[in-house]
Every structure is written in structure tokens, then in C-alpha cells.
């Protein structure tokens, strides 16, 4: 996301995944754990309490068990 995430970020394009498809979620530049939940309308990512000091964008890295399963 380009804006500073103040609340959960919704990734609608990953709504067809199952919980077991997601291996891990992290925010680049942060050492804090990222809470996430998969709901019917998307994957919701809770940003860390302390955001990294980045110049232009906040990036979540989502590791999938089988990336070829994406729609």
C-alpha cells in the first residue's frame, strides 16, 4: 500500500484462498508479527504497531504454500 496503513488492509484478490494456503505474512522492514485473517470478501492484514521508516510504500510479503493456485 502506498498510504500509511492505519487500519487493516484488505486484499480482495486473495479471497479464494484457504487458511492452509498461507504460509506466512510479514511487512518488509518490520520485525513484528503480522496478524491476518481470511474472510469471504478478502484477506485482511493488520499492520504492525510500529511501522517501518520507509520513504514511499509499505509492502506486505505473503508466502503461499502453492502460488500456482492463485486465480
Explained architecture:
The protein is an all-beta fold. 0% of the residues lie in helices and 34% in strands. It is built from no helices and 5 strands. It has strands at 9-11, 22-27, 35-39, 42-46, 60-64. Strands 1-4-3 form a 3-stranded antiparallel β-sheet, with no helix packed on it. Strands 2-5 form a two-stranded antiparallel ribbon. The chain starts with 8 loop residues before the first strand and ends in a 7-residue tail after the last strand. 7% of the residues are buried. The model has no long low-confidence stretch (mean pLDDT 89).
How is the topology of this model organized?
Layout: E1 9-11, E2 22-27, E3 35-39, E4 42-46, E5 60-64
Antiparallel strand pairs: 1-4, 2-5, 3-4
Summarize it.
This protein is mainly β. It has strands at residues 9-11, 22-27, 35-39, 42-46, 60-64.
Largest sheet: 3 strands, antiparallel
Low-confidence stretches: none
Mean pLDDT: 89
Distance between the termini: 21 Å
Helix content: under 10%
Structure annotation, total helices: 0
Radius of gyration, whole Å: 12 Å
Strands in their spatial order, largest beta sheet: 1-4-3
Short key terms for the protein model shown above:
71 residues; two-stranded antiparallel ribbon; 5 strands
Amino acid at each position: 500500500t502506498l498510504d500509511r496503513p492505519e487500519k487493516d488492509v484488505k486484499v480482495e484478490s486473495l479471497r479464494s484462498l484457504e487458511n492452509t494456503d498461507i504460509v506466512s505474512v510479514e511487512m518488509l522492514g518490520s520485525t513484528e508479527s503480522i496478524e491476518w485473517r481470511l474472510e469471504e470478501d478478502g484477506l485482511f492484514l493488520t499492520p504492525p504497531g510500529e511501522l517501518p521508516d520507509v520513504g514511499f510504500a509499505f509492502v506486505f510479503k505473503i508466502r503461499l504454500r502453492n502460488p500456482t493456485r492463485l486465480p
